[in-house]
Amino acid sequence: MSTLTLYTHPESRGVVARWMLEETGQSYRTEYLEYGTTMKAPEYLAINPMGKVPAIRHDTTVVTENAAICAYLADAFPAAGLAPPSGSRERGDYYRWLFFVAGPLEAAVLAKLGGATLEPRSAGFGSLEDVLATLDALVSSREFVAGDRFSAADLMLSAYLGWYMQFGVIDKRPAFEAYAARHAGREAAVRARATEAERAAAKA
Ligand SMILES: N[C@@H](CCC(=O)N[C@@H](CS)C(=O)NCC(=O)O)C(=O)O
């Protein structure tokens, strides 16, 4: 019997890792941490030296970074069908867009928030405009970004686009709204958000 633990905070990117855990159908326990205190305590720094959430521990394996957590869980629990088969052509699309969210999309958004003006030729994300145009064309032309079914790449992309639009970090675009809403309505996503909302309300 394996053990699976989510380390998180109700108001954090951890809701993405929780959504993914819910999609796998596995049982898991949650350890909630507090910003600036338990998140930076030696016990947690031994799990994630960055002192950030989310992280998961699966038996003795620790995984941090939302995209890595999603990819790891999809492979660890293949029966949930959250990743195209290894070696398939769809797997190429899957890796491409999963990494695009964790890399260019997040970096471009944070650069904008931080007021950084970077030379598009040397910045890995080019420009936020190009990143968003690329994603707009992608989600306007297909229902899922890898093959013909939902995968962890859709989970990541829809969660981050939804989140950025919700907080006004990027403009709402019809294609983004339709794509994010479609996947946010999945039962696992609804459960994940409800769990974090309950926890946040209980603390307030
Ligand atoms: N690259 C990480 C980002 C994790 C992250 O920045 N988490 C924030 C919460 S959303 C955090 O833990 N901040 C606490 C801190 O830095 O002290 C991922 O993708 O999971």
Automatic annotation (TrEMBL):
Q: What residue stretches are annotated with the GST C-terminal domain?
A: 87-204
Q: Which parts of the sequence belong to the GST N-terminal domain?
A: 1-81
What is a single molecular function from GO for this protein? Answer: transferase activity
**By its UniProt entry, which Gene3D superfamilies does this protein fall under?**
1.20.1050.10, Glutaredoxin
- The reply to whether Transferase figures as a keyword in the UniProt entry is yes
Q: Where is the signal peptide?
A: none
Keywords, comma-separated and alphabetical: Transferase
Under the heading Pfam families, the entry gives: GST_C_2 (PF13410), GST_N (PF02798)
Q: Which InterPro entries does this UniProt record tie to the protein?
A: Glutathione-S-Trfase_C-like, Glutathione-S-Trfase_C_sf, Glutathione_S-Trfase, Glutathione_S-Trfase_N, Thioredoxin-like_sf
Q: Which PANTHER family match?
A: GLUTATHIONE S-TRANSFERASE FAMILY PROTEIN, GLUTATHIONE S-TRANSFERASE-RELATED
What's the protein called, per UniProt?
Glutathione S-transferase family protein
Organism ancestry? Bacteria, Pseudomonadati, Pseudomonadota, Gammaproteobacteria, Lysobacterales
